Amino acid sequence: MQVVDLRSDTITKPTLKMREVMAQAEVGDDVYGEDPTVNRLENMAAELVGKEAALFVPSGTMGNQLAVMTHTQPGDEIILGQESHIFYYEVGGFAKLSGVQARTLDDSIGIFSGDDLKSVIRDDNIHYPKTGLICLENTHNRAGGVAITKEKTDMICKVAQKNNIPIHLDGARLFNAVIQLDIEVKELVKNVDSVMFCLSKGLAAPVGSILAGSKEFIEQARKNRKMLGGGMRQSGIIAAAGLIALDERVEELQVDHDLANRLAKGIKEAGLKAIDIKEVNTNFVILEVDEDVYTTDEVLEILAEHGVKMTYFGSGLIRAVTHKDLSVGDIDYVIEVMNGELLV
Ligand SMILES: *Cc1c(COP(=O)(O)O)cnc(C)c1O
Fold first, then answer.
1. From CA 180, how far away is CA 91, in angstroms rounded?
2. Are 257 and 227 part of one and the same domain?
3. pLDDT at residue 340, rounded to an integer
4. What pLDDT, on the 0 to 100 scale, is given for residue 229?
5. Residues lining ligand 1, CB < 6 A?
6. Is this structure's pTM higher than 0.90?
7. CA of 1 to the centre of ligand 1 (A)
8. Which of 66, 84, 85, 321 to mutate to test the pocket of ligand 1 (most atoms within 8 A of CB)?
9. Is the domain of 214 the same as that of 230?
């Protein structure tokens, strides 16, 4: 049976070129700072995003948690979206690892407003915790992969700067935003203090993310990474794939976005009774299920019977994510399956 896996871009496998450079990578002990391939990746990443320094970390989650830990003190309050990955999907790590509490804002459209932000920043009242950090996300996962513009980002950064509060950007899919917005990554992240992006996901490296920021911030984050057990040794083996991800995969994300649009267009044109397109952003397609016809679980089951895998995204909603390991033929097969007798 043909299998078309649209659950996430995390399932992408490394390219042949990645596997070749991994086999040949020059390595050393990175805890001593002696892995030339890791050093090359960190330098390249820092330069690319226009920050002084960068740190190679095992996962996006560790990158975000290190950012929270390094920017804040225990007892601080952090401001972040109620739908943000750091709040929603990181196992409460900020509370346990950094001892901070969260103040959440409505980010159902991908970002909160400057006015909402202003209304929750703490002043120095003796009863209050200190506002230690503000977090943004781009592209925004739970808002359906939406790319947040530079204008919207800078509006929040301006409020943060005025109040002397650092800003961290969770850019797990930062380069999807960069491609969608047709902007230099440096420009997009210019006014945030730190940024994390994943080399895995759409960029297809097998493992790894980058945390970037000032030299001083990264020095402290490196120490915190060691504390968490994320100090790696001959990690040049995996950093090598990250170099290829940045060199060769960024521009290719447009292909993923084109596939998302093809899928959305095909489903729309099929005129299905039970399924409509809610939105298509970057490499995400959000489907809306008319639950009077089929439940969301029934649709997922029917698709699975035909080898098509998608994700439950809340009541009446299904998420499909396009990525490099899909072809135009795969997308057309999904449309064909939906168009079949089961879903008409
Ligand atoms: C996937 C993701 C992460 C975490 O990355 P992992 O490498 O899976 O830990 C963080 N933020 C967002 C928005 C994500 O989509």
1. 30
2. no
3. 87
4. 98
5. 59-61, 64, 85, 137, 141, 170, 172, 198, 200, 209
6. yes
7. 30
8. 85
9. yes
